[in-house]
Amino acid sequence: MIVLDTHAWVWFISNPEFLSKRAEKAINNAVQKEHLLISSISAWELALLVKENRLSLALDVADWIAKSESLPFIQFVPVTNSIAVKSVNLPDPFHPDPADRIIIATALSHGAQIVSKDNKMLAYSQIQTIW
After folding, report:
1. Coil, helix or strand for 96?
2. In whole angstroms, what is the distance from residue 129 CA to residue 43 CA?
3. CA pair distance 53, 126, nearest whole angstrom
4. Are 41 and 35 in contact (CB under 8 A)?
5. How many other β-carbons are positioned within 10 Å of the β-carbon of residue 123?
6. Which residues are CB-neighbours of 64 under 8 A, at least 6 positions away?
7. What is the pLDDT of residues 27-70, one digit of tens each?
8. Is 102:83 a contact under the CB 8 Å cutoff?
9. N or C: which end of the chain has fewer CB within 10 A?
């Protein structure tokens, strides 16, 4: 089971050539087993990036997310109270970005690894990261 970081989700759907070979292999394995998780905070982050013109998509952001939701091998994980609290209580040192903290807490809550190119996530010893 894996959780995709926001950029890994976007690249998986729109630009798979941006994924590392290792990340692509892990995602393909998770797709076959239908164990591919995405935190709902990533939908928020994606919409924010589009609104701020830091990312453009071929579709309206709501339609793009809806197409991802319709894929049978992807499960969106809501930000539960437990995940929210866990994200605040992550062992230090980790940076204060709330979206990254929630993605990590989601992975920890589901016993999953994270697919991410983010150097801060890769260096965080509390979670297994694939890139």
Report:
1. coil
2. 20
3. 33
4. no
5. 10
6. 13, 46, 57, 58
7. 999 999 999 999 999 999 999 999 999 999 999 999 999 999 99
8. yes
9. N
Burial class (CB in 10 A: 0-12, 13-18, 19+), 58: exposed
Residue 54 belongs to what domain range?
A: 2-130
Instruction: Tell me the pLDDT band of 94, cut-offs 50, 70 and 90.
Output: confident
Number of structural domains (the chain) is 1
Query: Alpha helix locations (H) across the chain?
Result: 6-14, 21-33, 40-51, 61-69, 81-88, 98-109, 119-123
The whole-angstrom separation of Cα 89 and Cα 86 is 5
| Cα(24)–Cα(41) distance, integer angstroms | 22
